[in-house]
Amino acid sequence: MPATSVRFDEVTLGYGRHPAVHHLDGEIAAGSLTAVVGPNGAGKSTLLKGIVGTLAPLEGRISLNGAGPGPVAYLPQAAEIDRSFPLSVYDLVAMGLWSRSGLFGGIGRKDRTRIEHALAAVGLIGFERRPISTLSGGQMQRALFARLLLQDASLILLDEPFTAIDAKTTADLLDLVRRWHAEKRTVVAVLHDLDMVRRVFPETLLIAREPVAWGETGHVLSPENLLTARQMVEAYDPHAAPCQRNAA
Ligand SMILES: Nc1ncnc2c1ncn2[C@@H]1O[C@H](COP(=O)(O)OP(=O)(O)OP(=O)(O)O)[C@@H](O)[C@H]1O
How far is CA 175 from the centre of its chain? Predict the structure, then answer.
């Protein structure tokens, strides 16, 4: 599995002409396991959208280096996923194969075995025919992790994957995150549970509209840094004049 790194060169991301995150400069190392933390509105989801490519930088450049054959796998926040779509658990999980088989590629015997393995890995054997609209939040998250397993990506981005998920499901899905890390995939997760970040994630990026601290989790999550991040987001003025830091 060739690992993928993500390089930011003085990146500004935003909506319309309004920056949501700026002064992003640095690298998420290939094979690293990184948490992205920060207060509400800090720009964490925006950052992931920039990496996936659904949001083009207003300034600067984001480059993925060494991406393997698999695509970037991205799990959006639960609120962004349309659960009313008429789809069975099996079909949702099978969508993880699209990057390889194509939309109309058909599913062969090998693929069916892979889908079964993925369903087993997340504890959803027996749920294959269930419409996704009938799943609990935790079951839906398990199905989405099964889809991620099949995507077989070298870069995996997770936006608040454990929000409103119970302890058992969280523990099971965290095991998959650990497995991806052991397989040398690059994993980036937006998280609010700082205890979990300290326990599981060696690297952390703390942002508050711009990076506050980035590196080894123990250093990044200091009380001073967390306070600074909170103050920066609270002090943010959406009507302020554009930042001049890069203008010289
Ligand atoms: N589609 C959009 N159009 C305009 N502004 C947006 C859009 N999406 C996000 N924003 C704004 O960008 C800023 C950063 O939002 P973002 O969702 O990235 O923050 P976040 O750190 O993920 O927050 P949370 O922890 O609440 O999920 C916020 O001020 C938000 O209102």
Answer: 16
